[in-house]
Amino acid sequence: MPTAAEPLLQVRDLRTWFLTDSGPVRAVDGVSFDVHAGETLGVVGESGSGKSVCAKSIMRLLDEPARIVGGSILFKGRDLAHLDDEAIREVRGREIAMVFQDPMTSLNPVLRIARQLIEAMTAHGRFTVAAARSRAIDLLRRMGVASADRTVNSFPHQFSGGMRQRVMLAMGFSNEPSLLIADEPTTALDVTIQAQILDLLRGLNRDLGTAVILISHDLGVIANICQRVLVMYAGEVVEEGAPEELLTDPRHPYTWALLHAAPRIDAEAEDRRLITIEGQPPDPRAWPSGCRFRARCPFAIEKCAEHPELLPVAAGRAARCWVTQAGGALHSPERARAGGGAGVAAPVDSSAAVPMLEVPILEVSGLHKNFPVPKEAFFERQRVLRAVDGVDLQVFAGETVGLVGESGCGKSTLARLVTRLHEPTDGKIIFAGTDITHASQAAIRPLRRRMQMIFQDPYASLNPRMTIGEILAGPLILHGIAGDAAAAATRVDELLDLVGLPRQSVRRFPHEFSGGQRQRISIARALAVGPDFVVADEPISALDVNIQAQIINLMVDLQERMGLTYLFIAHDLAVVRHVCDRIAVLYLGKIMEVGPAASLFARPLHPYTRTLISAAPVPDPRVERTRRHVPMKGEPPSALNPPSGCRFRTRCPIAEEVCALQEPPLLEAAPGQRVACHFPGRLS
Amino acid sequence: MSDIALPAIASPRTRWLRRYGLASFGAVIIVAWVLAAIFAPWITPYDPNFVDVAMRLRPPSASNWLGTDALGRDVATRVIYGARVSLTVGMVVVLVGALFGTLLGAVAAYARGWAEEGLMRLTDLVFCFPPIILAMAIAAALGIGTVNTVIAMLVVWWPKFARLSRSLVISQRSMEYVEAAQSIGFGPAHILLRQIIPNAVGPLVVLVTLDLGNAILVFAGLSFLGLGTVPPTPEWGSMVGEGRELVQQWWVATFPGLAILTVVMAFNFMGDGFRDWLDPHANRR
């Protein structure tokens, strides 16, 4: 650790507990770290690891029943943990600023941007209103907000998520704080916007010398801008070090697990199964006495029954692990998988997984879906939002087709059209030889046995008032698969076995399960009727990385065992690359490029595909430095009024005059790879 | 870790009392009133309609604990019998109104379009008038009598349940579990009745409980004005009405008034208790 000067922030043995009536929840339980002036420190960990509570403790933004029950937070000679309310207000905003995850709710919707920025500056008495105003405009300009002198008078709702996050950053930097805490600042944003915000954050740290604590669950984001990384697990720091070393040679099994659970966008996968650790994080009310990771650790030894300390393992590195402190290495994925028990079937080579592409099970042609938009004036012409605007797609039996794109590109709408939850405006959907474009719900009902859907939000997709048994038996009885209650119960047990949940789950309600378990229930429900085609709408995007890996493994297993066909919708390109045979890239309701996963990633022909791939971060700083980044300009235009000609031209780095005049057709540019671009492959 | 001073953790008993103490107190009062109403003939010493002019306007005494009214009837007996009418009317109005309003609102919200539009304008129409005035007008038009008054109250009662159930169903309808049910192939009736409504029941139960006291109060108000029950039926509102000019004989109006007060308060305590119980945020503390 650099010890040149006194650190800016010294956190020592911080304990923040939630003093609930049913006993203390030890969210942060003995965390120590330093932040030096001008440094960027990354904090990673899964949800519930205590990383956000830690950040809030530094700002003292804790609500009852959370309380700092021990430790100190030394900041410029003062202990923030023990300052009175008056004094901590002087620190907040002025010396330490914070940017939150959700840019939609962290700005006050009824106040203009200008007023919110000016108040942030005048509140500490450092600026007059006039000075604050001109500074607000300068700051917005610095944050990359176009024509800042005009937009400063807008209301927050007139800004997109990325723009609001820029405003939040402007507000954070407005009083020139010496420390900025960013709590998942890019999690709610699309990958291209995330790249822009991370670039901005890196530049601000470099130019203004503000120290940054960046909290994220995404190792790729951390690898991109941090000089030092803390890994948190179960309320403790389990590993600390520079990202170059920590991410390539982890010294704590939890870091190792995080690193292997996430598929990487820069690596071809030999096996679709990912390495996962089993089980759940321990209960924060009663941490286990020994190493808190022991129960899930594939490397655990006898000594792990004692609680390890965070001790140096190499120059500038520390880990809380007996195995690596004794010099052990963490390099045996095979052993972990054998211990994991999730992968039952042997890995198959990918050539066999690609099926015979003969008959499409689903054929979509010229599909449109328009949503009417409420009129703003009475005599106004009815405006429509073209959510899906002419999509042709074929899905063949046994393959996995990925559908990717930024939010608002129409991928979820397409999923709901294909499953006929929505009725298309125009076009044709043929499923298993039957035209279901405008078929009535009663007419589709028999086909629903063959076509099912898995939803994004594991908290909303299960009826909270029904037991798991009722949820799973419902489809069986509806479709007459189970003749009586006993037959249904037997089948429900089989389904629970299939997705790896205990049979006792039948009597329990959804709220008794974790997010990953609920997603297993959701999968079991979809499989109850024995479908051969499953549409999965962002099935893993609400889950922690290790749980994501478990669900991906489950879906891959089920596909092999039951010969399923997947239409897999996601915004995470690395995941899509990992699990899909073919990928379709959507932009503003249209397919930009479609082709086999391997060739699409090896040689993206559409500039949009190319920029999407380059915007996805890789959790390895060394690789990250050698990758060529194609910056994408601006934000996606509104689907109410898409640009003329090629709709990507407004953000395209290689757009020419013809792109505005002529819409490029989707043509085959390489074997099996079709592109809608006038200049396919020029940007590479 | 033993050096960290922790505030004492409340025992489960204290915690429960802190949250549900008032509600269970309310429940005890309601149960007591319901039992009193059911077993009125056995626990009252007199006939509620036995007129004895010689005994008129006696103050509370050993033989007449709550005194007698202008016709010499025992106030205590009449207050206990009065619970029969008040509680029955309150429950009928609120339960029938809630059932009708909830179903209508739920169907409107699920169907959308003109059905929803029409229903909501109808509720607007009812909301245009102060409820008690509208109920008075309808009751007066229908003629005096308990049944007519109940009908009048039902007319003004259902819209609030229709409004609430509509908004609850709209918020549930966009949940993914509804889409999941559709994609499995369930029909609209199953989705609405078996999946959505059970999730909307919580706030409705709270409203029903809070509203019971309100309905009893409105009915007592109508009876006080002479629109509810026909004399000599013992009813709290009309008893207060009969005693309103007897300032010296305070017991005639006070005790039925206290009966109204306890019942309305008890229902409100219970309603608050249900609300706390159903509130997921309050549960964590």
Account of the 3D structure:
The complex is a heterodimer of chains A (684) and B (285). With 684 residues, chain A is α/β, with parallel strands linked by helices. Chain A contains 24 helices and 24 strands. In chain A, α6 (161-173) runs parallel beside α7. The longest helix of chain A is centred in the N-terminal third of the chain and has 18 residues, at 191-208. The radius of gyration of chain A is 26 Å and the shape is globular. Chain B has 285 residues and is mainly alpha-helical. In chain B, 73% of the residues lie in helices and 0% in strands. The longest helix of chain B is centred in the N-terminal third of the chain and has 37 residues, at 75-111. The radius of gyration of chain B is 23 Å and the shape is globular.
Short description:
Helix content of chain A is 31%, strand content 22%. Chain A has 684 residues and is of the alpha/beta class.
Secondary-structure topology with pairs:
The complex is a heterodimer of chains A (684) and B (285).
Chain A lengths: L8 E12 L2 E13 L4 E5 L6 H9 L6 E10 L2 E2 L5 H7 L4 E4 L13 H10 L6 H14 L5 H4 L9 H13 L5 E5 L7 H18 L2 E6 L2 H7 L2 E6 L2 E6 L1 H4 L6 H9 L49 E4 L2 E3 L2 H4 L7 H8 L9 H4 L6 E14 L9 E14 L3 E5 L6 H8 L7 E6 L2 E2 L5 H4 L6 E4 L13 H11 L6 H14 L16 H13 L5 E5 L7 H18 L2 E5 L3 H7 L2 E6 L2 E7 H6 L4 H9 L5 H6 L30 H5 L5 E4 L2 E3 L9
Parallel strand pairs in A: 3-8, 3-9, 6-7, 7-8, 15-20, 15-21, 18-19, 19-20
Antiparallel strand pairs in A: 1-2, 1-4, 4-5, 9-10, 10-12, 11-12, 13-14, 13-16, 16-17, 21-22, 22-24, 23-24
Helix pairs in contact in A: 3-4, 4-6, 6-7, 16-17, 18-19
Chain B lengths: L11 H27 L1 H4 L31 H37 L1 H15 L3 H12 L3 H28 L2 H9 L3 H37 L11 H7 L8 H28 L1 H4 L2
